[in-house]
Amino acid sequence: MSSGNVEERLRAVEDRLEIYQTICGYGYAVDGCNPQAVGSFYAEDGVYAVADIGKYEGRAQVEAITRDAHHLGLVAAGCAHVSTLPYVVIDGDRAAATCHTMVMMHGEDGFFIGRLSASRIELSRKPEGGWQIDHRQNYMQQGGPEGPALLARLKEAPKAA
What we know:
Layout: H1 6-31, H2 35-40, E1 42-50, E2 54-57, H3 59-64, H4 69-77, E3 79-83, E4 87-91, E5 94-107, E6 110-125, E7 131-140, H5 146-151
Parallel strand pairs: 1-7
Antiparallel strand pairs: 1-2, 3-5, 4-5, 5-6, 6-7
């Protein structure tokens, strides 16, 4: 990231910060049951693929997570969707971010990690500025090969548009 002139370097830093905001903002929005905020992080045809649950295809389906009875039960019981700081690869107007995501849950003995996933998030630059999620893939970290294989791709460039 240190190569390039000051403007290029500043843009790279701003891009990363905006990508961080997009990724972590989803957790706050979904726990706040705010469909408009959740949807604002996704492209109109964005996909959220959760290996053990299924795919949410399109912004409207992703927004609908906030109205799902199971999700509402988690929120009512006390939960937090949390992302670790992602490793980001930017290639022009496309980016890929790799991180862990988890759902912290509240139980009788306090808080615990209810879900832990490996995540790869493909993003694109919005025409008006900022970044949006085009595809997000989560694999549970429960001993199978899919999660580690996804995490191993951390330096892989984003897919072409």
